[in-house]
Please model this.
Amino acid sequence: MRHFLSLFIHEIRMLLVAPATYVAAVLFLLLMGFLYLFLLEDFSRVPQDSLPSTAFFSVFWLPVFFMVPLLTMKSIAEERNSGTLETLMTTSASPFEVVLSKFLGAYCFYCFLWGVTISFPLIVHATLPASSIDPRLLDMASWTGGYLFVALSGVLYIALGIFCSSLTRSQLVAGMLSFSLLFMIIIGGRLLAELPLLEISSFQFLNEPIKTLQVFSQLEDFSRGIIDSRPFFLYISSGFLFLGLTSLWVEAKA
Amino acid sequence: MSQMIPTIEVQNLCKQYGATKAIENISFSVMPGEVVGFLGPNGAGKSTTMRILCGLMAGTSGRVSICGVPVATRAHEAKRHIGYMPENNPLPRDMRVLEYLRYRARLKEVPGKIRNKRVDEVMDLCDINRKTRHKLIGSLSKGYRQRVGIADAILAEPELVIMDEPTIGLDPHQIRSIRALIDSLRGKMTLLFSSHILPEVEASCDRVIIINQGRIVAEGTTASLREIFGLHSTYTLSVKAPRSAFMLAVDAIDPQKIIQSESMDADGFLRFTIRTGLAESFGEAMSEAIRQHPEWCLRELSLKQPNLEDIFVAATARSWEQTLENSENLNKENDEAFSQLIHS
Model:
């Protein structure tokens, strides 16, 4: 892993000079800012049982669908298309180091952007008079749980995006593939749970695995401050599985 | 005395894509310090062979070692001995020259203490240190981009530098400067490069390997290949002398010669084009014979030796003929087998 640091610094530098990064960042922050604003308006009109942070994280899939493809689609596809992947692979850097550096570059930026959203409740807290602020606005357990889930699920989503980028030379195809797979993972679990097939006794054994794949129920638990170890295992292991597959693919098709 | 380890050793290398044989059982070796030209028509298997040498793809069978390190099993170690410049020289457009070379130096494990010095050295060597060091690679001309590619290939002072078409798409001035750059590397490292510009290869290389349809069809120095392919030298002679006496003198020097053309100009000078197998010695003997006859007047005596282009054409044409012959024999065998099957 002696080349990892050089590759990682290079990735961060390339992310910072790429216009697509800023487009993704602006779109993300605009979208999340507006969502938070609408949510607060909603909360101020009708008193609700749930926390504002829980409602804020319940729409986490919306930015994931466009952010992850935008951040990852160019990572390997562009290098393969321009031929720079070939020159990279002629050095003694291993394919896993290359893939891991690309993953961590995108992952850090993804986490950083989500991290910026903590400024939304802080701005509200700082600008509104103290008397009008609901103490639930800054419920730290909920915010921490929500961010922890976003960071955890991000391991799988970003790894999946990098994997899609390694399969093709076209950034567009990589982005579309990444979007489709993310849709299947995030929405597919909920759709599977609603299948009438699961009511048949011979398919009952699928109930438990499908329950484990329920992204939204995991998110709900995390944003209530309930931390379960199973999602940790699921997201980290599947994320690294995709990174491993990507390394094998890069090595075979450099 | 210990035996010298070849920088490149390829034994019975094959590469197949499905049913298509890209490389068919090729073997060759390159010794340290040699400058070798790797020639062949488009699609002959040059780039595939180079990519296998660099550990970018695996061969179907055979053995490749770089400085004694087998590429198939110890690719990471073998890569430390190689500097590779791929065809079309892909470079990141958004990076500055200095920034890119420093990044590549870190990846190529150039020690931190000498890294900046080494980057400056290669930039000086490739003449990209003054105007271009802080320019974006995307804004450079093709010639300068090639220089950046070569600087990258030689950055870690590898034992072997492999360059795939380093002069492709360059104008004659740029080709000359790249040639001078390659010449400056002679003796410092082993060089293997492919090119379609044969006079450049002839001028720069100690040896050439010609590959066609995935097979090596010729290997050696230009002089040895000239002999192998039976390509004779041609002399052009313009002399004022009695024809019969002159022909006797020519016959005495080389009875096997062939007079390709003969004419007489308005001044009474005889002009001959003579094909001979004697090369330089024919010219020396001819000028000596003319000197012995003070009444003869010599106006021109020039030698035209077959160049690498003639050798390349002869070698590739021969391999195509052999392939055609083989396929005809195969068709014949198939026809015979088919007719036997019908009769039985």
User: Anything to note?
Assistant: Chain A touches chain B through 21 residues (CB under 8 Å). Chain A has a mean pLDDT of 86.
